[in-house]
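Extended Data, panel c. Modelled sequence:
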Amino acid sequence: MVLCNASYYGTVAAIRSLGRAGIPVVAVDTGLLSTGRRSRYARSYLSSPPFESADWSDWLLALGRDGVRRAIYATSDAVSFALADRREELSSVFDLYQPSLETMMCILDKGLLHQHRRAVGNDTPETWFPQSANEADRIVREVGGQIVAKPRSQLCASSGAKGMLISAVTNRGSVYDRLFKHFGLSNAFTKRFPEMAMPILQRYHPEAMKKIYSLSGFRDMSGSHVVMQAALKILQQPRHLGIGLCFEEAEVIPYLAQQTIRLCERIGYYGAFELEFIVAQGRMLLIDFNGRFYNQLAFDIARGMDLPGMVYAGAIGATEELQRLVSRVPLRDKEQPLVFCNGFGLSLSVAAQQIFKKMSREEAAHWLEWRKTYEGRVVDAIHDSDDPLPAFFDIASRVGQYMRYPRKFLGDMAFKQTHVLAAVSAGCGFL
């Protein structure tokens, strides 16, 4: 199986899961320093053009025509779009488990996703789609409070930025203009879909800093085999709008599970997924739908939901194996719950926030004690005693980035609200 974005934590988790099952894995990334290539379970490694580039699909087709038929699955929004966009061509040389482009645009386009999630009954934050800086200025002024500004599609963010916070006291027009320029016609996707670069505005709920409910799972192509697990993201980096550092197990909420099934049916989605909900004053506000592998995939695998195995079985048409994997997902032991933690990211984040006086000594001690409390039951984002090299190279690469771009690192850690708050897309490292 071909797995791209080999530096992403979710991809490393999938490499290990499939490799341990005896499935040969080809790890693919754009550089030589990828952490996934260091895994003992990566049979081989290939360097490719950037996943967002127009050349990448051609490169993938050439790989598929080399005489060895392989499966492939989406590991990022860019890969998901490419696989869907040229699904017919790619299916002639790869085993795919990939919904159509029409379906994927209902996920990748936050405007379409907003329409569909409201249609199935999902509660959402208040959302606006301004067409100009003046209109955005008026909305922010009339609504008041803090608002998140983000691109209509994450694929427009060539830098990987997820958004920024603005408020009535911010220089709204210049912030909007700067954001639009940041998400402007800078890559092949936005040149093809220029309307996707228009930012959207969404009511900011500060509860997102402390509690986001994650509902992840798998739905097969027929819709007859569905499985889900839940978790709470209790700490992220950056704190306002970022990648999950710490997760705890949670119960699957029945009505959210039913709404998720209806949403998948409505748009025609099948495969692995993760939905994120802000828990705000008793409301569950859907903010994101990831139709691919995701950051904390190792957590779900450790809890018995083998999503890489499921999509591989689906791709090669192994129906009985797929049914077996779905049916063997266990009921979790409430007395001995697991937690997910990016250990290196947590330590660095806590230390940096103390330096910038964004976290008290008491809170810092709480998070370090939290990890100790679950000693022996922690699923780490990258560390695995059976496969140690990816963690070593991940730390080395992160430290190297910080040394090369110290100002960017310090700025991100300072959490300035007028700056772009998240420096990488979901599924990547903690920054």
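The two ends are 28 Å apart (CA to CA). This feature is highlighted in the accompanying rendering.
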